[in-house]
Specification:
Blueprint: E1 5-9, E2 26-30, H1 35-54, H2 62-71, H3 76-85, H4 88-99, H5 108-123, E3 133-137, E4 147-151, E5 157-160, E6 179-180, E7 186-193, H6 199-207, E8 216-220, H7 226-235, E9 240-244, H8 247-250, E10 275-276, H9 293-302
Parallel strand pairs: 6-10, 7-8, 8-9
Antiparallel strand pairs: 1-4, 1-7, 2-3, 4-5
The structure holds 2-acetamido-2-deoxy-beta-D-glucopyranose (2 copies).
One 2-acetamido-2-deoxy-beta-D-glucopyranose binds at residues 206, 211, 213, 237.
GO molecular function: carboxypeptidase activity
Organism: Plakobranchus ocellatus
Domain PA: 188-275
Length: 303
Amino acid sequence: MASSTVRLNQAYESAKDVDYSGRAISVCRGRRLLFLIVLVGVIALVVGLLIGRFAIPHDKSSEEKLLRALSQEADADVSETILNAISPRNIEENLKILSQKPHIAGRQGDFDLVKFIRERFQSYGLGVQVTPYDVLLSYPNDEVANSVRLLSSNGDIVYDSVQNESDISHLEGVVPPFNAYSPARKVEGKLAFVNYGRVDDYTWLQSRGINVTGHIVLAKLGRIFRGDIVDIAAANGAIGVVTFPDPADYTGVNNGDRRYAPDALWMPPDGIQRGTIFTGFADPLTPGYPANSKIAHVIARQH
Ligand SMILES: *[C@@H]1O[C@H](CO)[C@@H](O)[C@H](O)[C@H]1NC(C)=O
Ligand SMILES: *[C@@H]1O[C@H](CO)[C@@H](O)[C@H](O)[C@H]1NC(C)=O
């Protein structure tokens, strides 16, 4: 492989969607749901009720009593009521509906689930409000697939990555393989294997005189967040990153189990993991604040 180079083609978006920093981005009205807040609200209410039951101070040792009350077993009636209200059948049915179709954030499948969850909560007698959020999301180019190519020293393509997964690509709404927030670029360079792409892995390589500056690094997924794999690679001078799930980590082959989904939980041999490489928190455009124009106005007025 020493004489081979790898070409990465992150061809996501047409030029108009690529901003000046080269990021393939697409601003979309993310239909986030208030349901999460409602859920947190419900949990907070339940916790509040549980705490409230013991939190009414009476005398000087009330703090002590409160501490003791909080550290004792919860009221058996409460846990029994909650446990009795949970039906494994309902969980199975709900999970089936929630996972039936692709539902990448901000697209139709996602919004369909918002409606489903809203109706479910309403059927339980809860009031639900759906609030739109403006979140910077990242989508792949549906027309030009991303690819990884292995080239010989004279530029011939020795290997071209598969672009479709045989068992799901034909399904409606399946998003082509991509890493969200990865820049749309084509890079070519020599390959360097960096194990799981951890800081320690680079320290190990450096201790053996291996410098990955200017290389495309090949890293195994699964030990650290894929966004950190990319950040650490960049910090070490890499110009591109190829990640892959090692069958030793992601299948049952070590135990002689060669089955995969839908017969087992393992990913099919041509399955490709998707995910984000963004290492920030929440919406990249409004870090630390809700990505909601109303709230942004409130913040602006305060400053
Ligand atoms: C991938 O699947 C799509 C949709 O089924 C199809 O249009 C496309 O030609 C396929 N691409 C490859 C490289 O097989
Ligand atoms: C790796 O190589 C680059 C350029 O060739 C150099 O700038 C950098 O200092 C080297 N890093 C280490 C750790 O030797």
